[in-house]
Design a protein that fits this description.
Length: 671
């Protein structure tokens, strides 16, 4: 009993961090209607600044550094860190969230993910990828409570965060701006008519959220150290806490945060017991937030409050794809020529681009066509990849049967994750899928009982006596493997075109536009969603198998949540509504052709994720249709100009211009 009490007290520290992050999430949602997936990354930046100023007097800015004559005291360092949090909140409001406040949920999700990816990459560049220790600003003694030794630091942390959460509650309840924020969350038009500015209210909320969250991470960093990956993804359990609070109650958020922190701490204690199953000793603490999210959204998903807004913007148009043989042959011919004549490093980069294009195509299916925001595609790819390791090494399942079996397994997993989509969509579904992805990563991929630390080798793919392995001797990028990947990409694109042009594709677009309207005309919405999730997960599984073959041996880092979000970034940047966008995403993807070319000229280091994060934000704000969509629009504009020029007869300057012929309807479905 004493040990249980001591571990419960240790869990208070984690609960205090959850209080800060969940309070910030709730504030931003009430003011803007946006779930800020970058809340943990924003808080992490201010904490890093505090730690560096406190340690050696170095004020690290995104660009440049300012040195204090000598390291200032803890109070000054804390003020500097919180000041950075304020500046970051202001910049995030004006540059990221304000432009998309009335945009579709997809754009709001991707800008916050873009900010998260960019801030994490910037933290790695400026502070390094490894965890750093943070000196505690709180007393480090202990007290005796019910016979147990309870650390004073954790008790002080949770007390401070409860006070700050109470201050946020008082702001929302007792101040004019707070009451206006609550009113605007119900009816933004009414708040405007009463003389309040939603933009100003959102700015105040973002600044307060940054301050409260940063304070929590500053104190939490003294317990676990600061790491870019860990604190960025702490937003996932904080999202579970926000759902416990039903997106509106500060009190429930505080109680849920403390309870979740204590339960996770107790699970870490139980995992050390001899009777505890070995397969459940790792990652179970991340499964708990996923289960909480699933239960809450299943029970209350349709009754969770939504924020009223003045207007909304349509999702980008979807172009129904057409198969044009000569264009396909030209593209394949160019790809084959490049693979043949490229040097090994560029051939490997192009091969990686082809694989990423397949993974990006899965985003096109589930998000671009079906309108469901899934952040778990990397988990589906990883499940297929690790299954491939087992099938090819333990059971000698031959190629390509192994790919089909593993991709089918990924499809089954995708259909399982799709079950919450029967009741929810949009941002809530994004929360479910990112929680599922993190749970799968920590509980399966990082679990040494399931994926041994010695490595997960993959057998060589052979067919009809031809060896398609990527390596042989000193040749690290064999042409046979690259051509095999190209052939599989062509098959996946043809499969996508066939489905998109058929009844299933039209059902996808109908569900994307309006689920109730789709159901009213006889479309089985649940069946359509299951097919969409299964198909996208199957395509992601194929990509995961090819990633495995290209590596020869798999690790969890190949399929982390951050990797999946990076692929989503380039998929949205390329164009989330067309397979052409997936091809562009492959070229731009991490370790792809553009990365290889830039890395050969410049030392990119960790700058490429920063570039993709910023590019994702700019695309969501300025050009939602992506590079492929904008290119298509420009080509159509040129064609219209050429047609109108040919239609105009040669005449004198004073002659009336000939009418422009009617444009042939595009095969476009506007949603």
């Amino acid at each position: 009993m004493t040990t249980l009490l001591e571990f419960a007290a240790l869990g208070l520290g984690l609960g205090a961090v959850y209080i800060g992050l969940s309070t910030g999430l709730l504030l931003v949602y009430r003011a803007t209607g946006i779930i800020n997936f970058a809340q943990g990354a924003m808080a992490m930046w201010g904490a890093y600044v505090f730690a560096r100023v406190q340690d050696d007097g170095e004020l690290v800015l995104p660009i440049g550094t300012i040195w204090f004559p000598e390291p200032p005291g803890t109070a000054v360092a804390l003020l500097v860190g919180l000041a950075n949090a304020v500046v970051l909140g202001v910049l995030a409001h004006y540059l990221v969230f304000r432009p998309v406040r009335r945009a579709p949920a997809l754009a709001q999700v991707v800008v916050s993910i873009g900010l998260m990816v960019a801030l994490q990459a910037l933290a790695v560049i400026r502070f390094g990828p490894n965890s750093i220790q943070v000196e505690s600003i709180l007393p480090t003694g202990s007290i005796e409570l019910l016979g147990a030794t309870v650390p004073l630091r954790e008790l002080t942390m949770v007390a401070i965060m409860i006070v700050l959460a109470a201050a946020v509650w008082a702001y929302l309840r007792l101040t004019a701006s707070g009451r206006a924020t609550r009113a605007a969350s119900e009816n933004e038009r009414g708040a405007v008519l009463m003389g309040f500015s939603p933009d100003r209210l959102a700015l105040i909320a973002l600044v307060l959220a940054s301050l409260v969250s940063t304070m929590a991470v500053v104190m939490g960093g003294s317990l676990t150290g600061l790491s870019p990956a860990n604190y960025t993804l702490l937003v996932v359990p904080a999202l579970a806490v926000v759902l416990i609070a039903r997106l509106e109650s500060i009190g429930l958020a505080v109680a849920g945060a403390i309870g979740l922190g204590i339960i996770q701490s107790e699970l870490s204690l139980l995992a050390t017991r001899s009777w505890w199953p070995q397969w459940a000793q790792s990652g179970l603490d991340q499964v708990l937030p996923f289960l909480l999210v699933m239960i809450i959204l299943f029970a209350f998903g349709k009754r969770l409050p939504a924020r009223g807004s003045l207007q909304s913007v349509r999702l980008p148009d979807v172009v129904v794809p057409r198969f044009v043989p000569w264009k396909a042959a030209l593209l394949v011919g160019i790809a084959v020529a490049c693979l043949v004549f490229f040097t090994p490093s560029y051939r490997f980069g192009l091969t990686t681009s082809l694989i990423i294009a397949i993974l990006a195509l899965s985003y096109v299916v589930i998000t671009g066509y079906l309108g469901q925001i899934s952040l778990a595609q990397s988990a589906f790819a990883g499940a297929a990849g690790f299954a491939l390791s087992k099938l090819t090494t333990a059971w000698d399942v031959p190629f390509p049967i192994a790919i089909v079996v593993c991709a089918t397994l990924a499809a089954a997993l995708g259909m399982l994750v799709a079950l919450p989509a029967f009741r929810i969509r949009g941002v809530q579904l994004a929360i479910v899928t990112i929680a599922a992805a993190l749970a799968i990563e920590r509980f399966v991929f990082d679990n040494y009982s399931l994926t041994p630390p010695t490595g997960n080798p993959i057998g060589r793919p052979t067919l009809f006596g031809i060896d398609f392995a990527i390596r042989e001797g000193r040749n690290l990028a064999r042409l046979e493997f690259s051509l095999m990947v190209l052939a599989i990409l062509v098959l996946m694109v043809l499969l996508f075109v066939r489905i998109a042009r058929g009844d299933t594709g039209r059902a996808f677009l109908a569900v994307r536009a309006n689920e109730r309207a789709a159901a009213s005309v006889g479309i089985d919405v649940r069946r359509t969603k299951l097919i969409g999730f299964g198909l996208s997960a199957f395509i992601a599984g194929v990509a995961g198998c090819l990633i495995g073959y290209s590596r020869g041996e798999l690790s969890a880092e190949s399929f982390s949540v951050v990797v999946g979000l990076s692929v989503l970034a380039v998929a949205y940047l390329g164009g989330i509504t067309s397979f052409g966008g997936a091809l562009v995403a492959g070229v731009l993807g991490p370790l792809g052709l553009v990365y290889t070319a830039l890395h050969s000229v410049f030392d990119m280091g960790n700058a490429y994720p920063l570039i993709t994060g910023i590019g994702l934000i700019l695309t969501a704000v300025l050009n939602p249709s992506g590079i492929a969509g904008e290119t298509r629009h420009q080509v159509e504009w040129v064609k219209r100009k050429l047609r109108s020029g040919r239609a105009a007869p040669p005449a004198a300057a004073d002659a009336a211009p000939a009418p422009v012929p009617a444009e042939k309807p595009r095969e476009t479905t506007g949603v």
